[in-house]
Amino acid sequence: MRNVLQDPATKVQFAGHETFPLRLLWPKKAFEAVRGGAPLRTFQEHEAIARFGVGRNMAVSMRHWNIASGLIEEREGLLWPTALATEILDDEGLDPFVEHPATIWLTHWHIASTPEMTTTPFYAFNALPGVDFDSEGLASELLRLVQERGWRATRVTVKRDVEVFLRSYVRRTGALTEDAAEPLLAELGLVREARIGGWFEFMRGPKPTLPDGVFALALDQFWQRTGGDSMTLTAEQVTYEPGSPGRVFKLDEDSVVTRLMALDAITDGSWSWTDTAGLRQVHRRHQPDWLGLLTRSYGRMAEAA
């Protein structure tokens, strides 16, 4: 995972959002549009303006973000909601109108933990050294990678992607318009403007609104990507490796360890934590129940089968 952006097989993308950040109402609107399966051009047709109440470019952006968020997938030539989307966004689901922090944290995890559709957020959260950065520096680092790897992306495209990344995650101080409050991911407070003009900083540390269930779901996906056959992961891997919960959620090491120590209870014994002779690890006994973890993230217990 360390060199995922150096892997020739890795797919990257710096466009698709049509310069719009992900907005609060989009997950539910997109879910309803594809609930029973929808043509691939559903978000691109002229009817999209009436269907979604937005312009065509914004409808295309809606499609992009919902696929990147793990809420929509292409299957058998149609667009469908994922199992995750159905559990959350159905009218009787866990959070149909995206009012719970768990939904936003899950959305962020899907966007920032892999580079395939959202390369700039992945790079920013997983590869930038330190906590401070400026937009020009971030764009320059990405352009260097584009040149080294031979990816197809222009300077204008990359710089625009960086702008959308910042508009997605940074809550603008002093903004009073309704539109300024709309970007969904800014609610997490993961990135803020620094005192020095043009600079930004990641807010690293404990995340009180991040449910333990969401952390466990993210850890499960990270575990599968980094070596699903391994029965153990170290605290250092979970904290510092690119694509890890520690990196993506900007958790410090103590916060990660605190959450790892709670995994036995959270996963009903599927995972356990050990700290022996300085070797701090989480052990996997068997695969946890993802639906149980999801429902616990919203303060509910899974219904008995």
TrEMBL record:
Which species?
A: Sphingomonas ginsenosidivorax
DUF4007 domain: which residues?
14-289
Read off the lineage from the record.
Answer: Bacteria, Pseudomonadati, Pseudomonadota, Alphaproteobacteria, Sphingomonadales
Q: Extract the InterPro entries matched here.
A: DUF4007
Q: What is this protein called?
A: DUF4007 family protein
